[in-house]
Amino acid sequence: MSNHIEDQLSAYMDNELTETERQQVEEHLDTCLACSALLSDLSGIKTQVFTAYHSIEAPEGFEDKVINAIGFNATPVNVSKGSNWLLFPLISVLCFITIVLVVMGSYLFKFSSIMLKVAYNLIHVFGDILGSHTYIIAGLVGLSIVLIVASSISIKHMLKASGFKGANW
């Protein structure tokens, strides 16, 4: 026979095949000496592995020695025991906020849509005002430049005063 069932023998030994697949494997095993020999070899290996596995016992105290060797502690050293006191109030506040948002969701949506409309209209009004007066635009650009320069000088002095190592200006 040219198509053998080597890939199904492990599943056959572990009773993982469907009834029809199991019948097909058994019919093939009745006619194929090579697959029958392979099944016999696999069964022998499985028996040897199980025998070897069940004959091995760990020495007394082996688990404790391994745990001590890898440094595993039941309570981590770097975590303080009183750090969980904040967990309950935090969860309570988050639950309260969630409930408020769910209950007040429609009102918050209406309020936020009104605020977006107000902001949109204010942007248009200021855009119209600024667009019609070139001196205002020039003044704002100049003020922005002055603020940026003043901020950079202030940051430079703060970094020098604090001894920041990267400040070699």
Automatic annotation (TrEMBL):
<keyword id="KW-0472">Membrane</keyword>
<feature type="domain" description="Putative zinc-finger">
    <location>
        <begin position="5"/>
        <end position="35"/>
    </location>
</feature>
<dbReference type="Pfam" id="PF13490">
    <property type="entry name" value="zf-HC2"/>
</dbReference>
<feature type="transmembrane region" description="Helical">
    <location>
        <begin position="129"/>
        <end position="150"/>
    </location>
</feature>
<feature type="transmembrane region" description="Helical">
    <location>
        <begin position="85"/>
        <end position="109"/>
    </location>
</feature>
<dbReference type="InterPro" id="IPR041916">
    <property type="entry name" value="Anti_sigma_zinc_sf"/>
</dbReference>
<dbReference type="InterPro" id="IPR027383">
    <property type="entry name" value="Znf_put"/>
</dbReference>
<comment type="similarity">
    <text>Belongs to the zinc-associated anti-sigma factor (ZAS) superfamily. Anti-sigma-W factor family.</text>
</comment>
<keyword id="KW-0812">Transmembrane</keyword>
<keyword id="KW-1133">Transmembrane helix</keyword>
<protein>
    <recommendedName>
        <fullName>Anti-sigma-W factor RsiW</fullName>
    </recommendedName>
</protein>
